[in-house]
Amino acid sequence: MPPTGKKIHCPDVLSNLPEDVIDAILMFLPLQDAVQTSILSKKWRYYWCRLQALTLDRSLWKTEKDKEYPTTKLVNVMYHILTFVTRPITKFSLDPPYLESCPKMDNLLHFLSKNGINHLVLNLASTNLYKLPVSFFTCLQMKHLTLQYCLILPPPDFTGFDRLIRLELYDVTISSKSLESLIGHAKFLEHLALVNAPVLDISDHIQINTPKLRFLDYTSSIRSISLVNVPLLEELCLTSDEPSENSRICDIATFFESCNSLEHLHLSYDNIKVLAEGGVPKRLPFDLTCVKRLCLCIGFDEVDVVLCGLCLIRSFPYLQYLEIEMKYCCVDVPALECLEVEGCSDLTFPHLIEVKLFVIGSIPEMQFIKLLLSKSQVLKRMLIESWIEDIRRIDKRLDELANCWRASPEAEVVFDLNKVPYNNPV
Known about the structure:
Blueprint lengths: L18 H9 L3 H6 L16 E4 L7 H5 L1 H15 L6 E4 L10 H9 L5 E5 L6 E2 L12 E5 L1 E2 L14 E5 L5 H9 L6 E5 L10 E4 L5 E5 L5 E5 L5 E5 L12 H4 L8 E4 L1 H9 L15 E6 L4 H12 L6 E6 L27 E6 L3 H13 L5 E6 L5 H12 L8 E5 L10
Parallel strand pairs: 1-2, 2-3, 3-5, 4-6, 5-7, 7-8, 8-10, 9-11, 10-12, 12-13, 13-14, 14-15, 15-16, 16-17, 17-18
């Protein structure tokens, strides 16, 4: 027991932590919490200023006042960043609530461009598109870039970010020439997402010539792109909400010619229609043996769309997972000859394990489901979803499916009715 009247001096564990440990602790804290560590001790007062990765997300706008005046909050935070941060910021992410304007953003990007930024996320929901300043195009160390609600107008001497690995553009505006240049100079690009990204000259189309690319998410008509050189592409998601006005014909065999490593394919209804316009062979002149998962949206009242879907299925001999959303059509539409089991004797699914279908109960749909069950020797589960309000209209047909013959003795058919339509892959 210590002598009475003498103070006990406890070691200051926090102050004695190695600096690299302190940096690691701060990196995993939300920015607001990291700044508040300055009150722990005199030594910790300015440790947060050493952060090299900053995330300004919606958690910073917590109070009602913050939500009412988000721009004021953003200006204050940016002032502290520009004034107090002492180390180069290599990773920066900004995701504020809706802004009427983006004040001091040019100053911030100029600051980041001088400090070796290589990972940048700008999710800017505002009234007007934010025009990226010239300083942005000098960030030549950039490896990961995500932009939303931005206007991209590169200067004439801009040659792209040649170290870029990941590029995501959401609701941005850019010319097709600038976009193609941006992608074409990124020889190490592996991940590319172009979602609702309108181009200024829609008459042109973009050539995707990226030999390292592994993932592509493109939300627009496939008329506007060509997959020129994508030998490592593993996942391809092509969605579109409306038909393209571009008159360019898209040949289905030419489009998939470079996709030798493709494993996952998502195709929307509009893009399947575009592929079908150029004429649909019974199968592609080559098999894509790596494809394991296929997601489609088709309408069984349109023969060319159905034939296009069957063409793809025939060309993916090792398909394991199939997901199809049936586009709405008349429930009592006549059966299609192309779906008759006798006419699909060459169609087999030797590796198909799981199927997910969203149906409306038409006769061709039921015929197609029977075809799947009769041709899938290793099928384990088929999930059938529907949003039909009057279930009695299709009850009889569903009863037939529950009792129809299945090639796989382990195949389980599960019904989930009155379900809201899912959005993927439409």
